[in-house]
Amino acid sequence: AFVSSRAMSLTPAYPFQVSVxxxxxxxxxxxxxxxxxDVLPNSVILLQGGKSRTRxxxxxxxxxxxxxxxxxxxxxxxxxxxxxxxxxxxRTHLFFPRLPEAYAVWLGVVHPLSHFQSKYEVEACHxxxxxxxxxxxxxxxxxxxxxxxxxDSGQYAEPASFEGLAKYRVDNGKLYVSLSExxxxxxxxxxxxxxxxxxxxxxxxVAVMRQCRPGLPExxxxxxxxxxxxxxxxxxxxxxxxxxxxxxxxxxxxxxDADAVVxxxxxxxxxxxxxxxxYASDITCTIPISGKFTEKQKPIYETVLRAQEAxxxxxxxxxxxxxxxLLAERVIMEGLLAEGLVKxxxxxxxxxxxxxxxxxxxxxxxxxLDVHDVGGYTPGTPARLTEPGLKSLRTRRILEPGMVIxxxxxxxxxxxxxxxxxxxxVKSKFLNCDKLPEYLDFGGVRLEDDVAxxxxxxxxxxxVPRTVAQVEACMAGLDWENL
Amino acid sequence: AFVSSRAMSLTPAYPFQVSVxxxxxxxxxxxxxxxxxDVLPNSVILLQGGKSRTRxxxxxxxxxxxxxxxxxxxxxxxxxxxxxxxxxxxRTHLFFPRLPEAYAVWLGVVHPLSHFQSKYEVEACHxxxxxxxxxxxxxxxxxxxxxxxxxDSGQYAEPASFEGLAKYRVDNGKLYVSLSExxxxxxxxxxxxxxxxxxxxxxxxVAVMRQCRPGLPExxxxxxxxxxxxxxxxxxxxxxxxxxxxxxxxxxxxxxDADAVVxxxxxxxxxxxxxxxxYASDITCTIPISGKFTEKQKPIYETVLRAQEAxxxxxxxxxxxxxxxLLAERVIMEGLLAEGLVKxxxxxxxxxxxxxxxxxxxxxxxxxLDVHDVGGYTPGTPARLTEPGLKSLRTRRILEPGMVIxxxxxxxxxxxxxxxxxxxxVKSKFLNCDKLPEYLDFGGVRLEDDVAxxxxxxxxxxxVPRTVAQVEACMAGLDWENL
Lengths: 483, 483
Ligand SMILES: [Mn+2]
Ligand SMILES: [Mn+2]
Hints:
Helix content of chain A: 25-40%
Number of strands of chain A: 17
Bound molecules: manganese (II) ion
Oligomer: homodimer
């Protein structure tokens, strides 16, 4: 007999089929945005896909993940490719590496170009070694290459490069901005993929909640989440490295060690999201390791939840994301005032940036092919602020239908922030310096949803237990959805 | 109540504690090998560790994996470090990136140098920005950098690089060869780690066998194996990407797609190995998806098993690995002769390289910090051959105690090899061209063990079901170890 109690099944919606027309639509959208009067006739957009890599100089292959802009334009899953779009006509060319016949022994089959042409539904497929010849034959007035600053990382996109490039006139500015603008607003087909991957990740969070117990190391749950999203939902990649911080580690915003043992009585902050067809999810739950929140944990948790609910109720097209951040801060201050952890008037607390001591990060970020998606600070959108908390906002945009954004308020008790603040002559006036030290081993609470802005409000893609009663029911193995 | 039937526990041996003295011993061994008469007095060995990386230009961190030579010398787990060894005295310096105080908010704590000094037990720790100053103060006659050809990948190791390097005299040849020579023979402490990771991977293979059933996609088992080794054994990385080929895909030697559905009646080739403390395991099992081998599968499977057993029985110090490859080929030919798939005398079959049509890869490879470990073709060891099959050997060394090597004979029915061979006027004489076509959808069988060469023979680190009876018992959930 099979040991069937251990076996999982696939999620019912797997495999989630994505039509290659998603990318044809993307290219139409890109060209519409791109064709401003300054664009020269007979110009060509040229993108280079991600390169296959090994671990250092060894022959150990790394798992390939396509470059996001290339995926958005073409949906090509193979490494080491190029793609070109004739701007006037939209005619699209793809270039694939020419593999020797002998590779059939190692790869089963070496696909001809006709295979790629029908797979990707573009006008023409060629080999990469034909790139210069094909481009030359197009006699482009200019090649638009993808080069620009990622405002989350501070790093620049690497433009396409090939032998022979030097003889073409190139533009290294316009394309990146246009792509970022386009990617910031998702199409209906993109929303379908994102809805799916958030569903898979939501179900995996539920599985983690149900297996949570003291005595296991934090990485156990990183592994479990990764397995649930991969095996059941087909997610080959995680959108980012799982953050699993138990107890005090919940207050370490970028906690990746995951070596500590999960201990009874503490909270467990779980920020984990799978990736499907290169689209990210990004969900955070915070749960009591014992299965029941303590009286000390409950008001902090419920304050964060109220902040999330207040923001999600207020979100709709035309609303400023900066205002949503400030709204979350106010709800958090109200909760901490009620607990007697901060003191003073709301105006003073906000003016002195006390909220940023407890939530130093921004309320949320655009989500898409990258977990911190592009488009946060493109030209014409509000610029980054400088004050604590607000300076961490990854976008200050006005909400528009089709944006997907995370809503992730949090309260953390971070020694590196609170200990200096309690000694600061100005900030300490707003802190209850008798009570706060009792919270320095509390850790943190973050609740993060993935939501799409609709014409009238939002659609929340995240379906996880959120109320205290739901979390406790889920962890007890009960039906939390119909409480 | 917890849903406890789904929960796994840690493997009883986890965490497997590795003493940092493993690396002090390695450095002593390296210097003993390194100090030949041509080494200048007051020279310094300088190594650069692996660099932290993001996904393309985004802020999405990649999971860090230390560079193998750096790990072997120092055991440092942090990215972006350097290490220097004064050759005359063995005095060791480590250099860590200087993180701003503000990082404490994101990382919990910013460690002082004293933390690293006690963690890594070296003579001195510094910041990377002090590298040039510290090296200058040592007044080195020469810096030995790590640069050399990896004979498995054909790529070169990247030597250390830093601003100011140009003013030092450097040697880019000697260190790489010395490191490869040292790494080819494992110390007792290294063998302990490798024994552990092979045990973890063996147990994970058993878990996969027990959950195998038709209808699930191949990647389900990639995910399950990864989860079992990570969650239960603490393996943060896989030694290589899991190869899970069902049915015909078992004959694709480098099969990574894993998108096909596992179908009843076929074989399932599973080549998967976890990595612990950077040490690799590399184990292959081939199982019948239904849980029972068919009469057609059994003789092929048992031929491969006989080849593995024959090699493992013959292995001991002084034996040539080339001879072991030829031994495996002979056993495979005997089995295929008995099945009537090939014909002719053993001498003719061998001389015409018929075995390479069924096993185009080498019998096995050195295993260590890299899955295809360094040291295969260092100076003074037998050079690579050119004939089919033999040219694929990753080493032709004479076995020595402390070598860890995989024993992985296989029989595959690869269309890209067999179809042309059946049309070849010479090769076709040795093939049963009436019967072979019935095997073109058979897939392949590979059985791979990780074994250490001892003073008198071998120690097999792999503990998985191997005989037909053991595999079938394991898949039925029975006690296969005490049949
Ligand atoms: Mn997030
Ligand atoms: Mn191997």
